[in-house]
Design goal:
The structure is a single chain. This protein is α+β, with helices and mostly antiparallel strands. The protein has one domain: YaeB-like fold (2-Layer Sandwich). It is built from five helices and six strands. It has a six-stranded mixed sheet with strand order 1-2-6-5-4-3. Helix 1 packs antiparallel against helix 2. The longest helix is centred in the first third of the chain and has 21 residues. The protein is globular and about 40 Å long. The chain starts with a strand and ends in a 5-residue tail after the last helix.
Length: 144
């Protein structure tokens, strides 16, 4: 999907970004809090995407992060090679972190994750933390 208006950069939504949104929607629907998903979509369409269209460098440059381990350094080197001329940036939202890449006149939305989501397979890796997360979600006004 491509979103474009006027002389602004084209913002393209990747399949991975769509999968992330589907997962967020599923989690929030299961928790009977679809209003939070609707608010996320509103924030994306009314603020985030228009901001990135006009100011694609507004997000923090992901590659400026210091590597804190050999593995991290090797990973960043590999990522730099794969990016080539592109720039990888983070956009911090109210509850989410958006990762995007800019190549020339196009911006690709790559990933969106909740701030508390530590990995792509959070539930599998940290099953023991589920009760803790459920409690935190309820504390923020969510329902089980």
């Amino acid at each position: 999907m491509e979103i474009r208006s006027g002389n602004k950069l084209a913002v393209k939504i990747t399949a991975n970004f769509e999968r992330n949104l589907d997962e967020i929607e599923r989690v929030l629907t299961d928790a009977e809090t679809t209003q939070f998903f609707n608010a996320l979509l509103d924030e994306l369409s009314n603020a985030v995407i228009p901001n990135i269209e006009r100011f694609p460098k507004m997000g923090c440059n992901f590659m400026d992060r210091p590597a804190r381990s050999i593995e991290g350094s090797n990973g960043l080197d590999t990522l730099r090679k794969k990016l080539g001329e592109g720039e990888l940036r983070e956009y911090v939202m109210s509850d989410f972190l958006l990762l995007y890449a800019q190549y020339g006149q196009a911006v690709y939305l790559l990933s969106i994750k909740h701030h508390r989501q530590l990995s792509f397979d959070f539930a599998h890796l940290w099953v023991s933390g589920q009760a803790h997360l459920d409690n935190e979600f309820e504390d923020r006004g969510g329902r089980k």
